[in-house]
UniProtKB/TrEMBL annotation, chain A:
<keyword id="KW-0813">Transport</keyword>
<comment type="similarity">
    <text>Belongs to the binding-protein-dependent transport system permease family.</text>
</comment>
<dbReference type="InterPro" id="IPR035906">
    <property type="entry name" value="MetI-like_sf"/>
</dbReference>
<protein>
    <submittedName>
        <fullName>Multiple sugar transport system permease protein</fullName>
    </submittedName>
</protein>
<dbReference type="InterPro" id="IPR000515">
    <property type="entry name" value="MetI-like"/>
</dbReference>
<keyword id="KW-1003">Cell membrane</keyword>
<keyword id="KW-0812">Transmembrane</keyword>
<keyword id="KW-0472">Membrane</keyword>
<feature type="domain" description="ABC transmembrane type-1">
    <location>
        <begin position="116"/>
        <end position="305"/>
    </location>
</feature>
TrEMBL record, chain B:
<dbReference type="InterPro" id="IPR035906">
    <property type="entry name" value="MetI-like_sf"/>
</dbReference>
<keyword id="KW-1133">Transmembrane helix</keyword>
<dbReference type="InterPro" id="IPR051393">
    <property type="entry name" value="ABC_transporter_permease"/>
</dbReference>
<dbReference type="GO" id="GO:0005886">
    <property type="term" value="C:plasma membrane"/>
</dbReference>
<feature type="transmembrane region" description="Helical">
    <location>
        <begin position="170"/>
        <end position="192"/>
    </location>
</feature>
<keyword id="KW-0812">Transmembrane</keyword>
<feature type="transmembrane region" description="Helical">
    <location>
        <begin position="121"/>
        <end position="141"/>
    </location>
</feature>
<feature type="transmembrane region" description="Helical">
    <location>
        <begin position="275"/>
        <end position="295"/>
    </location>
</feature>
<keyword id="KW-0472">Membrane</keyword>
Length: 320, 304
């Protein structure tokens, strides 16, 4: 029994060490984004940047500094030293302001809000479209027998092997000739045509019992009605997994958007972040604030829908 | 499948027509996806092959160039360097990440439900963040003067290095970063497959007097082989397409020290606008990935 628990402690500490390494970069994004960027000592002689500090400050220094000034302000108030109290109170509000200044500059001097909105709405439009089109295609490919079914399926599946970079140049020419360059259509249409979901949906639809579909047909339901009110509700777990992955892919998509988008107000978050970095190479507080804003939604989505992530990965993976 | 296709194909044309008319709804269901697929995937794929044999002019027509694009691809120093870099990057990171995922998953699997959930989340969470974010923060962590990385390796007695700025360390900086990002997909897939290995196998081994390590080597690892094959293929394909880190952290430099195939395609196509050459490079990338996938699949499947 004793030996067992030593082993377990060892395993847990090893895994904890590994998870610290794995989570450290994300922690560093948030820590730097909230780090004090310029801070004056009490004697007003020296201005320190805790962002560019060697050795690095491991957490936002505004937190201890804030409480230090708070304590001093309280003390000064007790001693009726109004001048000192005001100074420390001012420092407290300065610290808060400086701590969040990266985020403020993102929204006031850059179009962060616009980029966020663009990413969000493109992600939603593509996800809804993919869920609808892929489940329709997956349904008939799994449950209907018609001439050409296998050819269509294998045609679609065989392109899954082709790296997406192969189509970059022709797609660029096509988008340009269609007059869609520097528009959101240039992102939405290609994203809607991704084929992975068809494969996933077809796999999933197989497990829906034929009897249910037959029964709906006998009851006189139209093909659309059968799909909409019998098949779709049964495919919910698969749809959830596909939806999350589609949204995540679109939200994080980078190579194609940097090729087709030129106007700053049309950028998605990843494109905006790249131009932000190009323009502020060494302003790491600003850059990490941008990175934090892009990371937060995906972290929230993951924490809420964790179960579906696992499901989607195992569905898309080996099912042998 | 289930004999129905055989009967369809053996029917006369008239039968096919009849069957198509009867199933018109199925075609309507397929229509939106199929249209998008044809326009934005099938046509561009075919077009890419055609373009790779052409000299593309922005104004005026395209001229046939025969194999000259392919010859320039293989003669160019940049492409050779990109191919070499991408290969080194893949050869180091893929085995390392798959093996660490296997070990991590095995350790996690031995724990209770709560701990399993916690570690699964801790290892998967960093992979939901966009590579753009990861690359930006690692560029900051690799900062020569103020970077966290130089500080941490200082604890172990290493001198600070200008990781991304020197041609002898830049590629390794990219590789180390990839090694330290947990292979979340791998861990989750391995965990799922492990829970489907039958307990009776382990019980039988225990009766035969096998210890934990022997059971792991003789039962767990072989039983997980399908997952391993899938993960190696998946991450090799992904690895050959490495791009985001490169453009955000080094721009392929210094010199060609971190040039990779996809970054080179990007530069050739969309900075220099040499469409024919970029198309040829991407076709070459496709065949490299295809050949490696087939070889890996065969090698890993060999003894079954």
């Amino acid at each position: 029994m004793r030996k067992f628990s030593i082993k377990k402690t060892l395993i847990v500490s090893l895994l904890l060490l590994f998870s610290i390494v794995s989570l450290l970069p994300l922690y560093w994004v948030f820590s730097t984004s909230l780090q004090l960027s310029s801070y004056q000592d009490d004697d007003l002689e020296r201005t320190t940047s805790y962002v560019n500090a060697n050795p690095p400050k491991m957490y936002p220094m505004g937190i201890p500094e804030y409480f230090e000034h708070w304590g001093k302000a309280r003390e000064a108030e007790k001693n009726d030293d109004l001048e000192q109290a005001t100074y420390h109170r001012d420092m407290m509000s300065y610290i808060v302001e400086d701590t969040f200044s990266g985020f403020k500059r993102l929204f006031s001097q850059n179009s962060m809000g616009m980029w966020f909105f663009n990413s969000l709405y493109i992600g939603i439009v593509v996800t809804v479209g993919v869920l609808l089109f892929d489940s329709m295609a997956g349904y008939v490919l799994a449950k209907k027998r018609f001439p050409g079914r296998n050819i269509i399926f294998w045609l679609i599946i065989s392109t899954m092997m082709i790296p997406s970079q192969v189509t970059l140049v022709p797609m660029f020419i096509m988008v340009r000739d269609l007059g869609l360059m520097d528009t959101h259509w240039a992102l939405i249409l290609p994203d809607l045509s991704m084929v992975f979901g068809v494969f996933l949906m077809r796999q999933f639809m197989y497990s829906i019992p034929d009897e249910l579909i037959e029964a709906a047909k006998i009851d006189g339901a139209s093909e659309w009605r059968t799909y909409w009110s019998i098949v779709l509700p049964l495919a919910k777990p698969g749809l959830a997994a596909l939806g999350i992955f589609t949204f995540m892919n679109v939200w994080n998509s980078f190579l194609w958007p940097i090729i087709v988008l030129n106007s700053a107000n049309l950028y998605t978050l990843p494109v905006g972040l790249k131009t932000l970095q190009d323009a502020n190479l060494a302003d790491f507080k600003l850059l990490m604030s941008g990175a934090a804003i892009a990371a937060i939604p995906m972290i929230i989505v993951f924490l809420i829908f964790q179960r579906h992530f696992v499901k989607g990965l195992t569905l898309g993976g080996v099912k042998e | 499948m289930k004999g129905t296709n055989a009967s369809i194909t053996s029917n006369k044309n008239k039968g096919v027509w009849h069957s198509m008319k009867k199933n018109y709804a199925a075609y309507l269901f397929l229509l939106p996806k199929l249209t998008l697929f044809i326009v934005f995937i099938a046509i561009p794929v075919v077009w890419a092959f055609i373009l790779s044999f052409q000299e593309y002019q922005i104004i005026g027509g395209n001229e046939w160039a025969g194999l000259s694009n392919y010859l320039s691809v293989f003669e160019s120093e940049a492409f050779k360097k990109a191919l070499l870099n991408t290969t080194i990057y893949t050869a180091v990171t893929v085995p390392f990440n798959v093996i660490t995922a296997l070990i991590a998953a095995s350790l996690i699997h031995s724990l209770g439900r709560f701990a399993q959930g916690f570690f699964r989340a801790a290892f998967y969470l960093p992979t939901v963040a966009s590579m753009v974010i990861i690359a930006m923060v690692w560029r900051w962590m690799y900062n020569y003067e103020f970077g966290l990385f130089n500080y941490v390796i200082g604890w172990f007695g290493f001198e600070p290095l200008n990781w991304l700025g020197q041609s002898n360390t830049a590629l390794w900086a990219i590789i180390i970063m990839q090694m330290l990002i947990p292979f979340g997909v791998g861990i989750i897939l391995y965990l799922a497959s492990m829970s489907s290995i039958s307990e009776s196998l382990y019980e039988a081994a225990t009766i035969d007097g096998a210890n934990a390590l022997q059971k792991w080597v003789k039962i767990t690892v072989p039983m997980l082989k399908p997952s391993t094959v899938y993960l190696v293929l998946l991450s090799t394909i992904g690895s050959f397409q490495v791009f985001t880190q490169i453009i955000l952290m080094t721009g392929g430099g210094p010199g060609y020290a971190t040039e990779t195939i996809v970054h080179l395609i990007y530069k050739t196509g969309f900075r220099d606008f040499e469409f024919g050459l970029a198309a040829a490079q991407s076709v070459v990338l496709f065949f490299i990935i295809l050949v490696i996938s087939i070889l890996q699949y065969r090698a890993l499947r060999h003894d079954e």
